[in-house]
Amino acid sequence: MTANGNNQTKMVGKQSILFQNAPYIIATASVAGKKESEGPLGSLFDIVNEDPMFGQNSWEEAESELMKEAAEKVIMKAGLANSDIRYLVGGDLLGQLIATSFGIAELKIPVLGIYGACSTMGEAMSIGAMLVDGGYADRVLAITSSHFAGAEKQFRFPLDYGNQRPYSATWTVTGSGAVIITGEDKKISNPAEADVVIKGITTGKIVDYGIKDSMNMGAAMAPAAFETIKQNLEDFGLQPSYYDRIITGDLGDVGSKILIDLLLEAGHDISKNHMDCGVEIFDKEKQDTHAGGSGCGCSAITFAGYIYRKLKTREWNRVLFLPTGALLSQVSFNEGKTVPGIAHAVMVEAK
Amino acid sequence: MTANGNNQTKMVGKQSILFQNAPYIIATASVAGKKESEGPLGSLFDIVNEDPMFGQNSWEEAESELMKEAAEKVIMKAGLANSDIRYLVGGDLLGQLIATSFGIAELKIPVLGIYGACSTMGEAMSIGAMLVDGGYADRVLAITSSHFAGAEKQFRFPLDYGNQRPYSATWTVTGSGAVIITGEDKKISNPAEADVVIKGITTGKIVDYGIKDSMNMGAAMAPAAFETIKQNLEDFGLQPSYYDRIITGDLGDVGSKILIDLLLEAGHDISKNHMDCGVEIFDKEKQDTHAGGSGCGCSAITFAGYIYRKLKTREWNRVLFLPTGALLSQVSFNEGKTVPGIAHAVMVEAK
What we know:
The structure is a homodimer.
Chain A: H1 7-10, E1 11-12, E2 16-18, E3 24-32, H2 34-37, E4 47-48, H3 59-77, E5 87-92, H4 98-103, E6 111-113, H5 120-133, E7 139-146, H6 148-155, E8 171-172, E9 175-182, E10 196-202, H7 217-236, E11 245-248, H8 252-265, E12 274-276, H9 277-281, H10 284-287, E13 293-294, H11 296-312, E14 318-322, E15 324-326, H12 330-334, E16 341-343, E17 345-350
Parallel strand pairs in A: 3-4, 5-6, 5-7, 8-13, 11-12, 11-14
Antiparallel strand pairs in A: 1-2, 2-10, 3-9, 7-9, 10-17, 14-17, 15-16
């Protein structure tokens, strides 16, 4: 087929890719809001801004600003210049991706805008890894963001309305996480630390079990996470115990229980090594965040601030990172449509 | 860097990729509405539906339906089954891509959702070509859609309001165009016809000249088209005359004039071989469409129905296909923000 003739070794099973020369994640950066800084992972974020407006005039501009800060920070941490980045692959939750369009325009990097709701970081890292591994980019910046107030305005109610939220509802994370993916084995940190690589990916299909409750997105997304994890295990012939952690994006309490049950019924027990970024990022009891955190930024800053460190220190060696997305809009919800889900898995390993 | 070691030959100049074994576009499909069928290209579309609701209950469902029909049609025309498609890469103009999410869910194909406003078909074909060329997919379905009524509701006014439109405004095309990209040299049509391949791509940056008028998107997008065309010519060391046609997406009358002027100032005369899908698709005088057609579907069905045929018959041998996007949302417009533009170029050639 192609010049290198090794297609067969790249495509694995029905929906997965195995990278023979796994691309490196050489740097991560995270920007978070005040509430996120007060959560259990608060000390791990690179930049915390206590002003929810991030010095701007609207929630949308605030999100653009925090995304720009994350992009600039990760480029700086990697010791690079904007012109060293071949592609920026990223997106956000706002209609027509306006946080992204206005946030990163001034960086002057070629942009591939993507949308997978809260699964977007998984999609960005998947596309980024393929472009780097295939020789189409020397360095890719994968980035996503979300903002609590912008998301409430976009999907639910204006904050001033002060609506009550059911316990199944999640709290959109204010934050932006970014990673730089490259084929170069460039050690920019302590040589004692592990290299972190993207070993493979499993790209999700849209899964719709008919859930219509936008205040229970965990339940809407759990079937998509189930299908992608099951396919990952099947495609690579693995048991769940292969992974130190199987980490979903923002299923929260409710969705996590459903996911564990669905996989158990299919013969896979992930109850011992499952973790959910939405559950980790907030202290449910103290922070009144109900089922947990959510949003594109939730999994992105948890990866950038927390998961990446665990791999660098070899506390974990193999992680399945699986951001999960609920494919609804205000319009589709108001028209009584279901909330389909999608989940994109990235196999991240210490090397 | 990677196993095949030929990175240098893939990345060309600052923003471009050259495919050594250019992937084939083996089939295209187009679904269009009544107004599009009455335009100059009307007889070229595979499916025309005179019902603007496409048998559904809302404009959004109508767009989902037309996208699904285009996907099914292109898979059928290529003699394939859904399971033969490794990735669907696509998107639409609606907030959170709901036309796509609901349109193609039942196809059960792994999905990479993308957003580049009306440049989305260029982005889909660019990513699709890289994934096929790199050995990450045997076949990719690239698809986009737009719907006049859904777009008016999303970006401007409800149709019932009956607002007047300035002459610089464009008319969103109701349609969906799809292509199948593969590394296999599979001739499914008349052997006398040319193979159509993707020779290279140039990925755009976000360009913002400060235009704020959402009724003059041609002017907002022209600078992005200018920058991408200029970069394409520089990266490959080409003159505009290399191409039989340089085809922008939906600049319309106003944007096309600006583009030609900008390039002329930079020393490139494209006045002889420039074409714009938005200008071609409607008869301005008879159809009252003002500056021309627009929308993700505009360039997609013009490519699928018209440009592809011209290449198959070798009437044209080299085309630069350059869908153009205006990165605004209703929210960003109402907040008084500018309309940044983006344009992704695909070099499509008869072989």
